[in-house]
Design a protein that fits this description.
Elements (H helix, E strand, L loop, with lengths): L8 E3 L8 E3 L12 E3 L8 E3 L10 H7 L3 H11 L5 H48 L1
Antiparallel strand pairs: 1-4, 2-3
Helix pairs in contact: 2-3
Length: about 130
């Protein structure tokens, strides 16, 4: 994913990953010296990647896998988990597992389709022999 470079999370744009943001009050010297807890990331410093939904996948693969209901469910649930340190660990583990499962389901579907195609070719070849004879 170009947004998170495959990590599944992006640095918070408001606090630049520090968890503390500048408040719009100047001190006597005209500097922004007052910092408050970031309201965007809730002091975590990172946010869920909205481009790949924490998967780290690029759009073509993401679109393909999101057609799978089970994968879609896991992605939706993981977007609800707070991306703090423990949450990121949980999200990463769940995503690895979900990606492995969805890839296996897609590989199985491809194998079934290839078997059907081969069977249809055999039937077509047999039908041709019957017509020729």
């Amino acid at each position: 994913c170009p947004g998170c470079k495959g990590a599944g999370f992006q640095k918070c744009f408001r606090c630049d990953g520090t968890g503390m943001m500048k408040e719009g009050i100047y001190n006597a010297d005209g500097d922004w010296n007052r910092r408050v807890k970031c309201v965007e990331c809730k002091t975590v410093g990172v946010k869920h990647c909205k481009e790949c939904f924490n998967t780290g996948l690029q759009k073509p693969a993401l679109r393909k896998y999101l057609k799978d209901r089970k994968f879609q469910y896991v992605v939706t649930k993981m977007m609800e988990v707070e991306p703090d340190e423990q949450g990121r660990i949980k999200i990463n583990e769940q995503m690895k597992f979900a990606l492995a499962k969805v890839r296996a389901r897609f590989a199985e579907k491809q194998a079934e389709k290839a078997a059907q195609d081969a069977e249809e070719k055999e039937l077509d070849a047999a039908a041709e022999k019957v017509v020729i004879a």
